[in-house]
Amino acid sequence: MMTRVTFSLRRTRLIAFNTVREAARQKLYGFVGVLAAAFVLGARSLRDFNFGAPELKFLADCGFGVMAFFGAALVITATAQLFFSEIENRTVLTLLAKPVWRAEFILGKFIGLAFVAGVFCTVVTLLLIQVLASREAQLLRDFPEASGLGAFVSYSNVIFAGVLQWLKLAVLAAFTLLVASFAQTQLFTVVTGFFILVIGHLQYLAQDAYARGGSWLGRGMSGLIATAFPNFQLFALADGLNVGEALPWWHVARVALYALGYIGVACGLAVVSFRQREI
Amino acid sequence: MKSKGLTLLLAIVSLVVAGAGLGKFVEPVWRATREAEPALRLDSAAAAAGQGVTLALLGGFRALVADASWVRMYVAWEARDLPATETLLGLVTTLDPRPVYFWLNSARIMAYDFPAWRIETAGGFTAVSPAIQAKFKQQQGEAALQQIDRAMRYHPLSADLWVERANIQLNQLKDLAGAAESYRRAWQQPRAPYFAARLHGELLRRAGRSAEALAWLVKLHPELPTNDEGAGGPVVLGRIRDLERELAVPANNRYQPAR
Amino acid sequence: MATEQHADRVSPALELRGLIKDFSTGLRGLKLRAVDRLDLRVEAGQVYGLLGPNGSGKSTTIKMILGLLAPTAGHCEVFGVASTCVEARREVGYLPESPYFYRYLTGRELVRFYAELGGLHGKALAERVAEVIATVGLTAAADRRIETYSKGMLQRIGLAQAIVHHPRLLILDEPTAGVDPVGAAAITELILSLKAQGKTVLITSHLLGQIEDICDRVAILDRGRLMLEGAVRELVGRADRQALLVPTLPAAELQELRAWLESRGHTLEMVAAPKARLDQIFLDCVGKKK
Lengths: 279, 259, 290
Ligand SMILES: Nc1ncnc2c1ncn2[C@@H]1O[C@H](COP(=O)(O)OP(=O)(O)O)[C@@H](O)[C@H]1O
Ligand SMILES: [Mg+2]
Description:
heterotrimer, A: mainly alpha, 75% helix, globular, B: mainly alpha, 74% helix, 0% strand, binds adenosine-5'-diphosphate, binds magnesium ion
């Protein structure tokens, strides 16, 4: 009798856009971005040694360390804060009182957060490339014999590493959003988000424990962790190779699909759980 | 209440099912990553624990900790603190074995600096008997070779590692045959330097195996590119002529370059 | 189209049947019944007042109407569509109690955002946004950030977002709470103009007097239960009494009037000086200055 309201990408985009706009207008997130940029640029002045390739490796490691650290802090806090600001300011009431699907809300939030993480990773990666390129040119001028070893930096790897970092942050955002969808407080969400980050980095140990066998209970626990949590170590696979050979692109593609898989499941579950949430 | 429990069950089941599938899918990439990074193995991660490293592993900041340890290693190196330098060298290469640079430099420090430090600690180059000095060089040279062997597990195709191995065998262990073999292995790796091949021949000659040296250089010469000065075609031809004279090769049996 | 119109004619703007909402209060599954077997029917075009003291379940009822809370039992329809469907929200505008919006947006951005969610786009969008902002009298402040708005301005921007997508049913939860009399009067006026446009309005308040002037019908809730329901005129009007207003009479004339009434078998029950309502005096003062 009434025409149906179908899932709308336009509304999802609107909610995503509003999420990005809210993040962009908060000084805190801009501050985190500036801080990360300052660390990447500052790494140049921290160099204690002047040996060519290892110095560039040091700069790159600093860049990715900064991206991983500030990125994770940014994504977890932004996810929790931008979700709970809707709940606490009761904007979620007026929003869902419009013809909006709860799935549109969750996906819109996720896309907005992934976009924020993407901007962060892009800025840090570009800064890092700039720092590496200028230092590389300087080194080649001062130590021309070093060029015999071939190019110092594989920029394709630096870009791959940036993309992988972004995918990791997107997975982290999806999992944090899943927690937020049922959590009662922002603090719980942030703390759980950090736990997920740590467990994700240690997930491979659970894989090993599962493979090694052991007691029924031990195997069950490690198997659960090894499958339910994503392996975040995978996303660092290009980090160390910036001075070495180019990473095969299919590695990156596979890890990207892996990330998309986890994002899909986490967002899907977040929708299911959010649909049951009383607001 | 009931529906909450159901949702939780659904969440766990779908995460486990999806995670199992995704884990299978990404397995080849993971295997390759892990082979390149021993720090991702439980045993070495546990071995490195207690050095502030566990925490860094949690956040995925391995490479950064390796860099910082490398800088700390230089501080210990300047203080000529052998145990500290040795520990930090081991830590750096365990944490981040990917840069060949770390391996090469750690082997050099072990092979050349450590014996010198030990001699100084024992009283100095004039006070310590040559036999003891040779023993120190022998011991540290062997330790350095072990370091290079470990490196080769991660970088099996590195010519630089074979060259470094040869240099240590030659300079510290005085092992002409071993060094010659290492140069030959270096030459088999991709992007090997031409001097490795020449040095293999030279060491064979010095080891008194001139006939083998000649055969090697004769086989080598046609493989060398003519348009690259560094390839040293004329030098090799000169050595061939020297060896032919030394071995009194009859004129009709002498090497005839194709070009 | 024809069937839709037909459906509208038969289905009321709102229909609640046996609505129950229990909140578990945490300890040992103890339940708090916030809404208790509520039956309500609001016909299209009415201004309907949902009255009751704090905690009587008004906001909870509204959240169930909007599908924000799932009823423990019972059923709830908006223009014949169950509240559990997203479709039920197409024709509804909602102003929550003490609204608090995206602080980082300007008033115009906020209304625009909700308008787009409500399905407006293109040229109509900007026009409609400007129009509703003018309707609530915020044109001058439209490009200021919401964090700089006063309580009354928040309430008005909240009204703007509630009406921007031309809903047929407006649900206003305590729209005048914490608002000064001028603002409250403006909101009252707006509600009456919405009624004139044929909209249905559901309004809650615990300030009963305020509602009296604008509502066609009211329901009174207490502890989640419907205590009284009916047309305002029937509930407050007394058909067997009348008040006469005359210039103050000298004592002798008053005595004469009393005697005249008694001669016809009536009694003069009360003589008193009528009081002006303070809010009316306030409005007259402030209004004159403008
Ligand atoms: N989310 C909730 N959890 C538990 N109790 C609630 C919740 N929301 C409302 N209540 C309780 O339900 C009752 C009705 O609340 P409400 O509908 O807000 O009343 P009103 O709007 O009439 O003031 C109150 O006793 C309140 O404490
Ligand atoms: Mg209320």
